[in-house]
Amino acid sequence: MAMSAFSQKILPAILIAAGVGVGGWFVGQGLEGFRQAERFITIKGLAEQDVKSDFAIWTLSFRRAGGDYQAVRSELTADREAVAAFLRGQGFNDQEIELRPLRITDLMAREYGQQDVALRYTGEGSVLVRSARVDLVARASNAVDPLITQGVALSQDGPMGGAPRYFLRGFNEVKPQLLEAAVTNAREQAEQFATDAGATLGDLRRANQGAIQILDDDGSDGYSSGLTIGKRLRVVSTFEFLLK
């Protein structure tokens, strides 16, 4: 009877102690596994690639002003035809040339306009070039002197100042190679880090592609203004590699 009472008191205590010890062992193993799983490094992979624009948009704008509406309209019409003829002479076809509607403003018709203006009518027109022949656009944009000699008042207004804008429409064709180069760059850095740390580089844990920048090739670091034919693609991707 005494032994039975002793067993009833001691045995549960032994079981509880054993349970705590086993539980502590599993918790310890879990923490160790967690620490091991968290052994990784974060690396940024940089890749750059020089490419050439494959499309251009060029707006040739011109202006006229005068006291007679019909005279201003006729001058603008003649200017538009002169610009179109110049472009055809440079080698552009009709599919690449778009004649835009003329716009004429009567300054005296404005609600708060002056009633004694010397040139009552001001007008403007434009011819738009859309072409994949970017080299032709670049050459033609530097050969507009004959138009100025003819009296066509080309406008330099706007953010581009009358210059062509160059774009990269085939971006998706070069994107895979750029990202592959970023991965290669990051892995090389990670392998060097692992070697220096006395570890072995493991599998890729996580990756973030990052934003791909399209820059002008004139040395500027801002996003492309569209003024240069040459472009530089740059991507900084983030990778996490496991360490063994």
From TrEMBL:
Pfam families per the record? Answer: SIMPL
Q: Which domain of life is it from?
A: Bacteria
Q: Which residues cross the membrane?
A: none
Q: What is this protein called?
A: SIMPL domain-containing protein
